[in-house]
Amino acid sequence: MLQAVRISVNGVSSAVHDTGPREGSEAVVFVHGTPGPMDDWEELAPAVGSFARVVALDMPGFGRAGRPREFDFTLAGYARHLGGVLDQLGVRRAHLVLHDMGGPWGLRWAADHPGALGSLTLINTGVLIDYEWHTFALIWQTPVLGEVLQVIAVPWLIRFVMNHDNPRPLPRSFTHRVTGYADWRQKMSVNRLYRSLRETNATFLPLASAMSEIDPPTCIIWGAADKYLPLTVARKQTEVFPRAELHVLPGLGHWPFIDDPAAVRSLLLGFLRRQLGGTQAPR
Q1: Nearest CA among 198, 202, 158 for reference residue 177
Q2: 24 near 38, Cβ under 8 Å?
Q3: Which SS3 state, helix, strand or coil, does residue 32 take?
Q4: Cα–Cα distance, 152 to 132 (Å, whole number)
Q5: If 0-12 CB within 10 Å is exposed, 13-18 middle and 19+ buried, where does residue 224 land?
Q6: Which end of the chain is less packed: N or C, by CB atoms within 10 Å?
Q7: Per-residue pLDDT tens digits for 127-143
Q8: Model-level pTM?
């Protein structure tokens, strides 16, 4: 488990991991997806922390974060929360490492703060242009049916489905951590978030346009056997991010950094060392 302190933004708290060199105001910022939590990054964050400041956080509704009843469960709402945490930490230049729904959250923040973006690493995530939601997302987006699915999604069933949909068995410690945080309030956060994203192009075409204009240095790392975000989605990212380098990892699934931490870590560290070596944080 990553060590963390608590930071609140507009009354909503997040567990926040902040480690590594503190000089200046530049940091590598890890943003988990759904169902999270930030401890998903425990195989990557410490390695990056050996040469850079590292920030990771549990986003509202997930992990050790607060479970707000009243919150803006849209990309904009989550981006504002992320920005509020970074402001309190004094991070003025962020190298984002994003996964799953953390991609849209982080990209929304980046589009709103282009001058603060150092680089992007997209791990099985990105802008979902022309994307057709997977079966579970479609159910979560459907009133009543989504609630019924969440009622029957008991821990053993969640773990079974995660392993069934992954090309190789997931570590027991990982799946049990996921279900350990899957209380009712987290499940309702998932439903509300996905219901705000029914129309993918209405949300993601403007975001893609904004990110194309920024054109940041981008590293795309993709588990090729992802059943939720197939490799066609990875190819779309190279259209949005012209300078992107794409690394496809055969035989890995939606959580490639869990399936093969060493493979992802090697690619990530190489990319980040190049970006941090050529930049200087504003002071």
Answers
A1: 158
A2: no
A3: coil
A4: 24
A5: middle
A6: C
A7: 999 999 999 999 999 99
A8: 0.95
